[in-house]
Amino acid sequence: MRVQQVRNIGALEGNTPVSVNDWETVKRGGDAAIKKWIDRNFKYKQCVIVLVGEDTSNRPWVRYEIEKAYNSNRPIFCIFIHNLKCPINGKSRKGTNPFDIFYFDDGMKLSSFINCYDPSSDDAYNDIARKMQSWVDAAITQRR
């Protein structure tokens, strides 16, 4: 629900929301279909945004996307979405930073180099809508 809210903000040009039904169809195709779908969607994107909910850092396909983005030198950042209001559950607990599970050979965490944003608890939706483009621009500048 929260991911769909962010995708539907429309703050990024050319970012067509994926319906829940589309994702369910892709998942039924198994790991190879999911990987192919992710790879195809990465092809024309200039920046990767990881929307971090309560369980995001435990999801293997999120890990795959982070590795793919980093290894292909794509700009990447995350937005914590726990403060977005779900009509069923309200707000949720803040998830763990998914970049904390990636380490460099020297022991530094990837999270030391990747920006993660925690929108206002008062109005997370509008905070994200106002700042999304500047966060994308910052990630692109940082990755250069």
UniProtKB/TrEMBL annotation:
Domain of life of the organism encoding this protein: Bacteria
Q: Outline the extent of the Thoeris protein ThsB TIR-like domain.
A: 2-85
Extract the Gene3D superfamilies matched here.
Hypothetical protein MTH538 (3.40.50.9200)
Which named protein is this?
A: Thoeris protein ThsB TIR-like domain-containing protein
- Say which species the protein is native to: Pseudoalteromonas tunicata D2
